[in-house]
Design goal:
Layout: E1 2-5, H1 20-28, E2 32-36, H2 47-51, E3 56-58, H3 61-67, E4 70-72, H4 79-82, E5 90-93, H5 101-110, E6 113-116, H6 131-148, E7 170-174, H7 178-189, E8 193-198, H8 201-210, E9 215-219, H9 222-231, E10 234-237, E11 263-266, E12 287-290, E13 293-296, H10 306-327, H11 329-335, H12 339-342, E14 343-346, E15 349-350, H13 353-359
Parallel strand pairs: 1-2, 1-4, 2-3, 4-5, 5-6, 7-8, 7-10, 8-9, 10-11, 11-13
Antiparallel strand pairs: 6-14, 12-13, 14-15
Helix pairs in contact: 6-7, 10-11
């Protein structure tokens, strides 16, 4: 099989979908790997690293898409790449279809098979290809929140941990999954006052057991959400419904009860965001102010720490890439747990029910 690794073209995206070790494994197994020139530079990986492990360095993305049976990427195909896709081609990447009807319809029209990292389910119902990037985003959310709470960044001028005699920041984390857990751990280390909200009581019990005393838990309902918004200096939106749009937990009217220049980090923006006023931003222009609240809604947060994120992502995606290349998609789907759940579009037909339902499109099981 010919596997193509194009350079990511999304704004401020520095990750790459495969490291040289993956190239070596695929070429040893008899496959051909095409890597676009300079695809790895943002992660500190050079053309010589790939060529030395058996890759063919290709000059243009157009050639990568033209020649490859399987395209592996990090972010969803951008509009400039849509015209390069061809019917029957497989693309394995983060798609987050529920956030974009235009992308969904474009992949249908191209007739490709879209295999989405974010919906591949593990044996315990977990999302193993989303987990490492959720870990990165959760940890980064506190790092970014601390920065944008500073007054020169338009924030409230709050130090997360406070100092003796001055109260620490109050941080409300909506969602106790991987993002929320990692955000809480970092926030706790800053000695902030932290509250995690979730609707899964068993998850809240688990978090209560493992977190330090400055992290508390609350059941997520409208009353508790509003109370936390009133208290919060920093809000982390960390909710996820696999394959579907994130629920709007924070309404526009809710912002009026928040402290002036409090900060919202909406990590759920990849799935449409859990704050009604959120809209995607970039690392170059990461924030905007709405109702005197600072919004940070970068849709590819882990892209800023490309080297860490590339290695963390490749650790979990490569085994699936390897099996698909060796077996072909249909046999891999029949024998490797999780791959079926990752197939969102098959030859142009939507095979993920949540995506189809989001946009009122026809659904055909794989």
């Amino acid at each position: 099989m010919i596997v193509g690794v194009p350079r990511e073209v999304k704004v401020d995206e520095y990750r790459v979908a495969m490291i040289p070790a993956g190239v070596e494994e695929l070429t040893k197994a008899g496959h051909k790997v095409l890597v676009e020139r300079d695809a790895g530079l943002g992660s500190g990986l050079f053309n010589e690293d790939y060529a030395g492990n058996g890759a063919e360095i290709v000059e243009t993305a157009a050639e990568i898409f033209e020649r490859s049976d399987l395209i592996v990427k990090v972010k969803e195909p951008q509009p400039a790449e849509w015209k390069l896709l061809r019917s029957g081609q497989m693309v394995f990447t983060y798609f987050h279809f529920a956030a974009s009807e235009d992308l969904t319809r474009a992949m249908q029209a191209a007739g490709i098979t879209a295999i989405a990292y974010e919906t591949l389910q593990g044996s315990k119902g977990d999302l193993p290809l989303l987990t490492p990037m959720s870990e990165v985003a959760g940890r980064m959310s506190i790092q970014q929140g601390a920065k944008y709470l500073e007054r020169p960044q338009d924030g409230r001028g709050i130090l997360l941990g406070g100092v003796p005699g001055v109260a620490p920041a109050h941080i409300a984390i909506f969602g106790g999954g991987v993002v929320g857990k990692n955000a809480a751990q970092i926030a706790a280390g800053f000695q902030a006052d932290v509250c995690i909200l979730d609707i899964n009581v068993d998850r809240l019990r688990y978090l209560e057991d493992i977190m330090p005393p400055n992290v508390n838990t609350l059941y997520s309902d409208r009353h508790n959400i509003r109370e936390q918004l009133q208290r919060a200096d920093l809000v982390i939106g960390a909710v996820l419904i696999p394959g579907a749009k994130a629920p709007k937990l924070v309404l526009e009217e809710d912002l009026k009860m928040m402290k002036p220049r409090a900060v919202i980090i909406d990590v759920a923006i990849d799935q449409g965001g859990c704050v009604e006023t959120s809209r995607p931003t970039t690392h170059s222009q990461p924030t905007f102010i709405e109702h005197d609240i600072v919004h940070y809604c970068v849709a590819n947060m882990p892209g800023a720490v490309g080297r860490t994120s590339t290695y963390a992502l490749s650790n979990v995606t490569f085994p699936y890439i390897f099996r698909i290349a060796n077996l072909g998609l249909e046999q891999a789907a029949a024998t490797v747990p999780g791959i079926v759940s990752a197939i969102n579009v098959f030859n142009g037909k939507i095979t993920n029910e949540a995506v189809a339902r989001t946009f009122g499109l026809d659904y055909e099981p794989f």
